[in-house]
Amino acid sequence: MMSVLQNKNFFKLFSGRMATNAGDSIYYVAAMWLVYELGGSAFYTGLAGFLTLIPQVLQFLTGPVIDRISIRKVLTFSQGLQAFMILSIPIAHSLGVLNVTIVLIVMPVISLLNQIAYPATSALIPVILPKEQLTKGNSLMSFAYQGVDMVFNAVTGLLITFFGAITLFWTDSVIFFIAALLYWRMTIGKEATEAKEPAKEFSLKRETRQYMKDLKAGFQLVLGSAIVKLFGENIVANFALGAMMAILPAYADFRGGSEVYGALLAAFSAGVLIGSLCAPLFEKIPVGKITMISFLIGAGFWISSVFMPINWISIVLFGICSIPIGLTNVLFYTILQGCVPRKFLARVFSVIASISTSAMPLGSLAGGALGSIFPSSVVFLGAGFSFLFISLYIAMVPVLRNLPSVKKATIEDFKFNQEILNGETVSS
Question: Where are the transmembrane segments (predicted)?
């Protein structure tokens, strides 16, 4: 797997992603805990989660743009701007004007910038790496996502206890500047990152028409394929995960405080990381069967973690339950990267992300609202049953139950519309 890192551009992308995720982890943990402290209620963390997740629903708007402009510039710009936005929180604190409203305004703006960076990264991987290295590359990128999250979620929880949330924002802005520099130093050929069409004189009308055409093609390709079957389980699962993340500060406070909050987030990331790193071992096993079995087992671990009175064991059980997320995410992404034509990649990934996560903001609101009425442990337990739903849903949908392995998957398995693949749009 380490041989993939010998690719200089992938190494820079990987390093930049690690820096970005370190910044994201520090910011998210510190911001959510700051909202909980300033607002004093699970309702505010639910609202914060809702506002942070709403931009994910709009990710489909970024796909057509990313497919046509320099991905290197997109990544550099988004990380640099995030650095400046994060600085606004400690500056407001220094001026004595910081309140929960300011944090609630900054959080969705930073999240919106992330919606540009994530599909850009996914679209760039198959450009940098050959098809036979995609699983390993995605596995390493998942390590960049989840491994860094695991470490910094835990560390941030402890640092909040010793230094307070505000101090961490200063350091976080520096980390995002480093990520921007790493992305800028990539030396990918123009044919891989720039617009594929010859330069023309700018025309707002023409560009708008082309953008809408690309946007329509992305939706048609996804909604007219077997991918649409995934949205049933994704919407329910993401609603539950949104509720879980909203209630987590209150649940952690109930079980011990900010240290437990960081530990729970770290354990969850660790489980996703383990699943991601193990994904190459499952390339020859049908993805449908892996999903059914792994999420059924994961449900048992999540539910049992709530009833475990010993904190460290409960945290470990919760971490194990997230292994199926990392495992199946890498396998699904690898299949899509190998089957979807390159010119559609960013659009397909952004549309999938937008639709799949559309329920997450509502779940966050619901989790916060329910957490102000019922004990946090009850809401947390209810969210755990989403994994059981995933397993049953996959079992009941033939096209998902019979999904082949990464090694055997072909474009025909997703039943894409050939008219769209060849002509980009079809009449509505």
Answer: 18-36, 42-62, 83-110, 158-184, 260-282, 289-307, 313-336, 348-374, 380-400
DSSP 26-49: HHHHHHHHHHHHHH-SHHHHHHHH
| Domains of the chain by residue range | 2-423
Q: What is the dihedral of CA 125, 130, 132, 137, to 10 degrees?
A: -30
| CB distance 229 to 399 below 8 Å | yes
**What pLDDT shows up at residue 420?**
63
Catalogue the E-assigned strands of 308-370.
none
| φ/ψ (deg, to 5) at 189 | -60, 150
State residue 185 phi and psi, 5-degree precision: -85, 0
pLDDT tens digits, residue range 255-304? Answer: 887 778 878 888 887 888 788 888 888 888 888 899 999 999 999 999 99
Residue 361 to residue 143: CA distance in whole angstroms: 25
pLDDT tens-digit map of 342-357: 667 767 777 777 777 7
Other C-beta atoms closer than 10 Å to the C-beta of 155 total 17
CA-to-CA distance for 166 and 164, rounded, in angstroms? 6
For domain 2-423, the question of CATH label 2.120.10.30 is answered with no
At residue 196 the predicted structure's pLDDT band, cuts being 50, 70 and 90, is very low
